[in-house]
Amino acid sequence: MYDFLIVGAGLAGATLAERLASQLDANVLLVDRRDHIGGNCYDPVSPDGLRYHRYGPHIFHTNSADVVAYLSRFTAWRPYAHRVLSHVNGQLVPVPINRTTINALYDLNLDSAGLEAFLRARAIPSRFIDSSEKLILSRVGRELYELFFRGYTRKQWGLDPAELDPTVCGRIPTRSNDDDRYFTDAFQAMPADGFSAMIGRMTDDPRIEIVTGCDYRTVADRVVFDRLIFTGPIDEYFEHRYGRLPYRSLEFEFTTVDTPWVQSAGCINEPSADVPYTRTTEYKHLTGQQHAKTIVSREYPRAVGDPYYPIPRADNRALYERYRKLAARETNVTFVGRLAEYRYYNMDQVVASALAKFEALAALAQVAS
Ligand code: FAD
Ligand code: UDP
């Protein structure tokens, strides 16, 4: 007999399990169909002793002091500012595009005002920015759009930037200074012992029973529980009643190299259509480990496979909206997280969403008592 059955032991499921157990003294059964907890943040250690991210590079960054305060109960932090280089015209240049990028690519020596004028002269403004293509054209013009965004995006999503919401490429700003950090959030750091250890501490409570390698459908009618919390794909919960919601997948190719370092930044992006993968990641940059060997991964986008990315565009949002209405009619089920809310959430946004759902559940519990 459990108070809650939580489906998915990623950040969403772990946050709710922790809050419900510690604040409401609830008994929780937390299940995941993978053979580990942590969801996509899972960062195991290889037989060589190298930590890597099984589902691609995860860098924690946020402007939410509440989320930092919450997670800091379960981890110490190692400051880390992520840097990315893009392979363009035979050079490795910083992304987001900044002053260094433009001066290197065009062999110029512009100051910030000069760079702003350079971009203004190339920008193609639109009255209604309703796609990633229009957004990037309005910021940097066609040539830089083609060099940095079009090929990468077509590979990553299997769609042209013209077919994607502005919010997709809009994640990447343009800068007129030399700041080459990928993110500018106030807080940028990695959990000192990794994400899996942090999530392990969140769920280390006698009131939380964890079962991995278990699809919830195999246990849902065998255990008794008051309320379900679902963090998997929302369309799967409803057995694809209105058809499949598209999620983009990735295949990761990991290589251990017998040399201390192979690249000068955490990620190197490959926007060219001639290269089949989108980026290479060298995990030691992210983890801060010192080691004689190093692990790198390449990411090959796929249409089928584990669901990693909701695909932000109007028709998918409309289909999600139909599922959301079904979800709202479910009594006793809470849908939360990147797959269940069909939102291109970063980790901090998932934690914030889970904390908000917890507050709603706590209010319900108060009414009931
Ligand atoms: P998930 O981590 O996907 O967890 C859901 C869990 O539910 C999964 O483990 C799944 O196995 C389980 N599940 C689903 N269905 C069932 C079922 N029927 N039965 C049992 N279990 C089930 N965010 C950042 O902030 N910074 C980054 O740098 C960053 N990089 C990323 C890179 C990649 C390649 C990807 C894919 C994502 C990245 N993210 C990043 C986003 C981050 O991974 C997510 O925001 C976060 O991990 C989502 O947590 P979640 O709990 O909602 O979902
Ligand atoms: N993007 C791009 N070129 C780049 C980096 C990003 O075109 O060099 C676009 C691409 O569509 C990508 C999106 O911007 O999917 C968001 O990039 P981000 O690095 O945030 O993606 P994530 O880490 O979530 O995969």
What is the CA-CA span between the terminal residues?
Answer: 19 Å
Can you count the beta strands? 15
Average pLDDT works out at 97
CATH class annotation of the largest domain: Alpha Beta
Tell me the Rg in angstroms: 22 Å
Domains counted in the coordinates: how many?
3
Count of helical stretches: 11
> Main β-sheet, in a few words?
7 strands, mixed
Strand order of the largest sheet: 6-5-11-12-13-10-14
Low-confidence stretches: none
At CATH level 2, the architecture of the largest domain is 3-Layer(aba) Sandwich
CATH superfamily of the largest domain: NAD(P)-binding Rossmann-like Domain
Structural features, described:
The longest helix has 26 residues, at 132-157. The strands form 3 sheets. A 7-stranded mixed sheet has the order 6-5-11-12-13-10-14. The chain folds into 3 domains: 2-37 and 203-246 and 311-368, NAD(P)-binding Rossmann-like Domain (Rossmann fold, 3-Layer(aba) Sandwich); 45-83 and 181-189 and 247-309, no CATH class; 98-170, no CATH class. The protein is α/β, with parallel strands linked by helices. It has helices spanning 11-24, 65-71, 99-106, 112-122, 132-157, 166-169, 195-202, 234-237, 283-287, 314-329, 347-368; strands spanning 2-7, 28-32, 60-62, 77-79, 84-88, 91-95, 187-191, 208-212, 225-230, 247-257, 267-269, 279-282, 294-302, 309-310, 333-335. It contains 11 helices and 15 strands. The protein starts with a strand and ends with a helix. It is globular, with a radius of gyration of 22 Å. The model has no long low-confidence stretch (mean pLDDT 97). 40% of the residues are buried. The site of flavin-adenine dinucleotide has 34 residues, from helix 1, strand 2 and helix 11.
